[in-house]
Design brief:
Blueprint lengths: L9 H35 L6 H6 L1 H13 L5 H10 L2 H61 L1 H45 L3 H15 L7 H65 L3 H13 L6 H16 L9 H12 L3 H19 L10 H24 L6 H23 L5 H20 L5 H32 L6 E2 L2 H10 L5 H5 L4 E2 L5 H20 L6 H28 L6 H29 L13 H28 L17 H16 L5 H24 L8 H19 L16 H12 L2 H6 L13 H16 L8 H29 L1
Helix pairs in contact: 1-5, 3-5, 6-7, 7-8, 8-11, 8-13, 8-15, 11-12, 13-14, 13-15, 14-16, 15-16, 16-19, 16-20, 19-20, 19-21, 20-21, 20-22, 21-22, 22-24, 23-25, 25-26, 28-29
Protein name: Exocyst complex component
Keywords: Coiled coil, Exocytosis, Transport
Organism: Branchiostoma floridae
């Protein structure tokens, strides 16, 4: 509290003078004490100081005395110095002298001021009463002043408090103005990290460290922040790497959808190009039917060709269709992590990690499912994964500098290409469905076109397609093998009849056959071929369609496609169809009429091969390049098949003849002939007549060959009857009966069962039998022996060994007769027989000797 100082009083002055006097007295007492102390010290000092030393220390004692006078400090050091100098008495005297001098000064001063002191006391006593009054007035004034100034003091204290607060606020404001930007930058850093904006956060962290924190370095929190900066950098680095890992995991899961989208875009572009090419072909080619069928084939083999499904999904996928495959992916985690690692000086570490992880993901994407070959969806999923992977890598390569290099991409693609080819080669080998194989081919083509659009070389995939084409052809061969078998099994092997014009037109459209005479006939009309012919021809065309479907989009020229289709069709004709026809022809259940019809069928199929070649040329568009095309082997195939059928006809006919001949039962000891031909032979001839009547539809040469073969086989079989070793005896009556059978055969031959033979050509089949029987019937051995070996010999075709065999059998038959019971002419005949046998043996032995010589 503010107080007014009291007024001075005279007594106060008096008191001050008194205090001065008392001070001087105290000083005197002080010196006395010092003197007593010095005396005490001098008593302990050595008394035997030399006089010479007393003068030396005189000046020092003077200095010590002056020091004692000038200081109020303790006297211990002075006493110590005196004690050390050992001049105690001298110093004591010096000190006493100085004390006496001060006492005189004090006394003189007191005497000088005593009267003034008395006067002052008197005046003080006078002023005392007034001072008391004044004191009371001052006390009252002070109390009043104190009372009146309480509010002022309060306000003053409040003002001081406000000033202090204001000063604190100003100081705090200044501090906050420095700290707030730092805190704001730190908050901004936290927000950026929470929002996963790591690259801006890293920039903010740099500004915070180098610009803002130095301004507030005197504050403790700045050190805490500075210590946290390395941890924040690592946190940003780890967070960006975590985002990169999430990105890699995400694109691994979504690669299939990315690849599907990329393939869809490639397919749309391909369809657009195909429409333009189709318009050009429609203008170039007049065969609209072929073009329309090719268009249908394209639509059927479209791997994404579910138009209804596309219409349903259009509303849901409009947005995706407007975007490219790259737009479907947010690559910011890659860019962000790359920039962060670059700023932190760890770019190489980031690149190595990224490439290592992508290599692992590439191997995972290239690993197919074990059952991929079972469905088309398995192949789609496999291709989508691979395309999605390389679309992502291509985008990263084009949008970053050095993260994915061209060399790295080439290494990945070379590794992937070898794996893809191995996988497709393995899994396609399990495929047995031609339709699925065709869809797989279209997928591979679309897969290749999609990747080629991103700059990847895919020529090896097209080479693989050539391998798959061979497998596809094998599958088609198996499929058409079953088709041909079913056609041949269901064929009636009878001429095809049509009841009305619609059926007739259908056959004419399906098979190139023209016959003006047939067109003029009334219904029902009869085609020379059976129902299997148009079916087989149609299936050959279908096979060519199936082959050309696989050839499309393989970057092949019209000539290459034409050659490929022709080679595949040749394989179908020469191996599959030929094998089916051969197996069908060799069936034991087929009769002569069926074999004849098969032979006729092959003739018409052979004729249709020319139209088949034109059809393939028109379909492949290689009409102008026919110089380079291979020729169809169908003509030779059907010729060989027809020869096989004809051989079967000959074999069947001979087998049937053998069946009749097995019924033969000759009595070789018959004495007299029955006068008519054997019954089995008459049945055989009747069968041959009816059979050769069926041969009228066969080419003349075939019917003639069949007839000639049958007659030769019959003649040789009859000759075998005569020469059979089991027949030991032959009588003349048996020979006469046998001659009747041969005469019947000759009559059949003379009737010309098959027209077109030259005169005597068919009769020559029985000439050997006829000469042999004539020789025995006429018994004209003298002429035979005399003309033997000459061209004019009447029995030139009779070999001596054959005659010997029959003569010996006749001699065995005659041995049963009693020699004495024989008539003379019979005995002469026996002698002649023995003589003839002897001469015939000589002829045989003579010929053998000549041969040996």
């Amino acid at each position: 509290m503010f107080r007014v100082p009291p007024l001075l009083h005279t007594w106060r002055d008096v008191t001050r003078l008194s205090e001065t006097s008392f001070s001087n007295m105290a000083a005197s007492n002080h010196w006395k004490k010092i003197s007593a102390a010095v005396k005490f010290v001098s008593k302990d000092a050595a008394a035997s100081q030399e006089k010479a030393r007393l003068e030396a220390i005189e000046a020092q004692h003077e200095l010590l005395v002056s020091e004692i006078e000038a200081t109020d400090a303790p006297l211990g050091p002075v006493c110590r110095a005196v004690y050390d100098n050992e001049g105690h008495e001298t110093f004591l005297e010096k000190l006493n002298t100085r004390i006496r001098s001060h006492d005189r000064d004090i006394e003189r001063m007191c005497n000088h001021h005593y009267q003034g002191f008395i006067d002052s006391i008197t005046e003080l006593l006078k002023v005392r009463s007034e001072a008391v009054k004044l004191q009371s007035l001052v006390t009252e004034s002070n109390a009043a002043l104190q009372e009146s100034s309480k509010e002022l003091v309060k306000k003053s204290e409040e003002l001081l408090q406000c000033r202090r607060i204001q000063k604190n606020i100003t100081s705090a404001t200044e501090s906050l103005s420095l700290c707030l930007p730092v805190l704001e930058m730190y908050i901004k850093l936290k927000e950026q990290m929470d929002q996963k904006r790591y690259y801006p956060a890293l920039k903010t962290l740099e500004q915070l460290e180098h610009t803002y924190l130095p301004r507030v370095s005197r504050y403790r929190f700045s050190k805490i922040m500075a210590d946290a900066i390395p941890r924040l950098r690592e946190s940003i680095k780890d967070a960006s790497m975590s985002d990169l890992k999430d990105f890699l995991e995400s694109i691994r899961k979504h690669s299939e959808r990315i690849g599907e989208h990329a393939m869809s875009h490639a397919l749309k572009q391909k369809d657009l190009d195909r429409v333009l090419v189709r318009k050009y072909l429609m203008k170039k080619s007049g065969n609209k039917k072929v073009q329309e069928e090719k268009k249908e084939a394209e639509e059927e083999t479209n791997p994404f060709g579910n138009e209804d499904g596309e219409d349903e999904d259009d509303d849901d996928e409009d947005e995706d269709e407007e975007r490219s495959a790259q737009d479907m992916i947010d690559f910011s985690p890659v860019y962000r992590c790359m920039h962060i690692y670059s700023v932190l000086g760890a770019r190489e570490q980031f690149e190595n990690y990224y490439r290592k992880q992508r290599r692992k993901q590439a191997r995972l994407a290239l690993q197919p499912q074990s059952n991929m070959h079972e469905t088309l969806q398995g192949y789609k999923s496999y291709f989508h994964q691979i395309i999605g992977f390389f679309v992502v890598e291509d985008t990263v390569m084009n949008t970053t500098q050095g993260l994915v290099s061209r060399q790295f991409m080439d290494e990945l693609w070379d590794m992937a290409l070898s794996k893809i080819i191995a996988v497709l080669r393995t899994h396609s080998a399990y495929c047995t469905d031609a339709t699925l194989m065709l869809e797989i081919k279209n997928l591979i083509v679309l897969f290749s076109d999609t990747l080629a659009g991103y700059g990847f070389p895919v020529s090896q995939l097209y080479d693989l397609l050539m391998e798959i084409r061979d497998q596809y052809n094998e599958i088609l061969m198996k499929r058409w093998l079953q088709i041909f078998r079913e056609i041949l099994e269901s064929d009636t092997c009878a001429p095809l009849y049509v009841a009305d014009k619609e059926e007739y037109s259908e056959i004419i459209r399906s098979f190139p056959y023209q016959d003006e005479a047939l067109e003029k006939e009334d219904f029902p009309k009869r085609f020379p071929f059976s129902g299997s012919v148009p079916q087989v021809y149609k299936q050959i065309k279908e096979f060519a369609y199936a082959c050309i479907k696989f050839s499309e989009d393989l970057n092949l020229s019209h000539t290459e496609i034409d050659d490929m289709v022709r080679k595949s069709t040749n394989l179908l004709l020469t191996r599959t169809l030929s094998g089916c026809l051969t197996s069908h022809i060799k069936k034991q259940t087929l009769g002569m009429a069926e074999l004849v019809q098969i032979s006729i069928n092959t003739t018409h199929l052979e004729t249709a091969c020319v139209y088949l070649e034109d059809f393939i040329s028109n379909m492949t568009g290689a009409v102008g390049d026919s110089v380079h095309t291979a020729r169809l082997q169908g003509t030779n195939t059907f010729k060989d098949t027809r020869q096989e059928a004809e051989s079967q006809i000959y074999s069947k006919l001979n087998t049937k003849i053998d069946e009749f001949l097995d019924l033969a039962c000759y009595n070789w000891t018959l004495q007299e002939p029955r006068g008519h031909a054997s019954g089995y032979l008459m049945d055989l001839i009747a069968f041959l007549q009816s059979t050769f009547a069926v041969f009228t539809n066969l080419p003349g040469k075939v019917a003639q060959t069949a007839c000639m073969s049958a007659c030769k086989h019959l003649a040789s079989s009859l000759m075998t009857f005569l020469l059979d070793n089991e027949v030991r005896q032959v009588s003349m009556g048996a020979l006469q009966q046998f001659n009747l059978d041969v005469i019947q055969c000759e009559q059949f031959v003379d009737s010309e069962p098959v027209p077109g033979f030259k005169d005597g050509a068919l009769q020559m089949t029985f000439v050997e039998l006829r000469q042999l029987l004539d020789l025995f019937m006429a018994w004209d051995w003298s002429l035979y022996l005399s003309d033997y070996g000459q061209e004019r010999n009447k029995y030139v075709r009779v070999h001596p060994s054959t005659a010997i065999t029959i003569l010996e059998k006749m001699r065995e038959a005659d041995k049963k007769k009693n020699l004495f019971s024989l008539k003379k002419n019979e005995r002469d005949r026996r002698k002649l027989l023995d003589a003839v046998l002897k001469q015939l043996r000589q002829l045989v032995n003579g010929g053998s000797n000549r041969i040996q010589e």
